[in-house]
Model the fold of this input.
Amino acid sequence: MQATETMAGPEHYLSELVRAGLLIPVGVDGLYGRSGDFEDVIEAFNNVITRLGRDDGAEVMRFPPGLNRLHFEQSEYLKSFPQLAGTVHSFMGGECEHHELLRQLAEGEDWTGEQKPTDIVITPAACYPIYPVLAARGALPSGGKLVDVYSYCFRHEPSKDPARMQLFRMREHVRIGSPEEVVAFRETWLERGRMLATELGVPFEVDVANDPFFGRAGRMLAANQRDQNLKFELLIPITSKERPTACMSFNYHQDHFGEIWHMQTAAGTVAHTACVGFGMERVALALFRHHGFDLKAWPESVRKLLWG
Done:
């Protein structure tokens, strides 16, 4: 497939990706296997991010895609995004309960009632595990802290849009410190993001945005987020020119996480946080959309950026 002026809709683009073998359907909307070429693009882009931030002095942290349930509850995620959360349940019964489970399974009944919640919640954003870890260390060092984190994440929003997966990878750089330090960090990455998208050869725009807060109170939070320019997104058309997809986000959380986790700067003030997030699958989908499915036919400048 080569990019054209006609923008394929979500289901059409998904069908093309499946026919090309880039995505492997498993029977659940938003859950896919990935081909070797797809993974090559993800890994190459991941390496580009590493090179961009190499001299920043970030501490690298890598977590499995599971979060301590207590930490999840303390994060207040459920106040804002209950519709997206996913929990891990497991069988915790004895032999009698097991026999009942097998009977339900054999008769086609709902067997999930025998499952009970564990102490693990599926990670909703790559940065969430780092805040309690940093808080447990005590006050931040002088100059604050920078963390590089990368994880699979889960959000319950099944869709036939390939750019809206339920399980996806997120790479983040998270800055914790004074308001001046974290705002400067976000401005630096906004410029890097624009430069990166330009070098990737994809059309894009950067616009103010808001998170998908839930309910009536959530609409007020969203409006406040936009009014204060707390969230920007780098948008690339993947399945719609009118509604381009957020592939990078640049977020200033103010003192939200600092207050929750009692994180303090070296000066004893409440720490502020900001992050830049990269939707790894979305960037890959944007590259396939605009450069075609044959990696060897991609522009030489893009191939050189990704693979050297």
Notes: Residues 92-121 form one domain. DSSP finds eleven helices and twelve strands in the chain.
